[in-house]
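User: Predict the full complex structure for these chains.
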Amino acid sequence: MATINATLNLASSDLTSSPLSLSKTMTMNKAGSCNGLELTSGLVARKFTATTEVDLCKGGTQNYGIPTVASADGVSTNSANKIYIKNTGSSTTDYVTIGLGTATAADAIGGSHLNLGKLFGGDFLIMPAAFIATHGDITIQPSTAEETTVEYMLFFE
Amino acid sequence: MATTTATLTLTSSDLASDALSLSATKTCYKAGTTIGLDQTTGLAKTYLTAVTNIDIFVPVPGATMDGKNGKVYIANLSTEDTEFVQISIGDKLIGRLYAQDFMWIPWNQEAQHLSDIELAPSVATGMWVEFMHIHEGMVYPTAADS
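Assistant: Here is the predicted structure of the two-chain assembly.
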């Protein structure tokens, strides 16, 4: 097993009258155990040059392994997968929209396809990645056709 | 405006033969600007004693903040390895946060139900969780006494 630590620090001296100084560390363990996750996609860098929505990361057979695909109801979602995604750009106006669903014309972001939120230049996220069979693909849609680079890293069991 | 900075570090000396040491830092801005997010729910900490799926952040019916920027932090403070909270947005399951796990995501308040952030504990014996929303605006429900 491996030991992977993730630490999030949130700091602000002026968001509220009491300074914010939050620090949280997690060791990425397998579901329900104290054994660490030991598989990863590696740090992937992808360049996008169109505003087309595509799958960024999904479960099932990949060239780096087979991340668990959970049942549609989530009951058998026995995984503690985590994904990190970063828009490596520096633009404050161009962004990528991260979605959850399937990257098809019939399931575009909005409507039944979850629009999770936007990552502007330099923005990042870290979250669980259950990869639910029916809607679990993590999708991405750049706001511009100008070259946009996004990094992601999946940790899975 | 306020300046709120988020920094994430990922480290591992034994995940692969090349040590992982990744760090990302970003100031939280309003959408399309360099103006800092200036509103927050504050850091809520609560003790949940049922496995009921609950809303922790909800867009108000009829109101939309679609396109506004916001960041959400959620952590499971349990120390029992087997205990988790299941996180969903609307009817889409994001995944599980096991003991001491956290998440940090952008959140688009598109519409009620579609964008509600939901949390379901795995046990009814009591679990501590904490969560916070840092944002550029939200709509509060109109007061009603009945």
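The longest strand of chain B covers residues 4-12.
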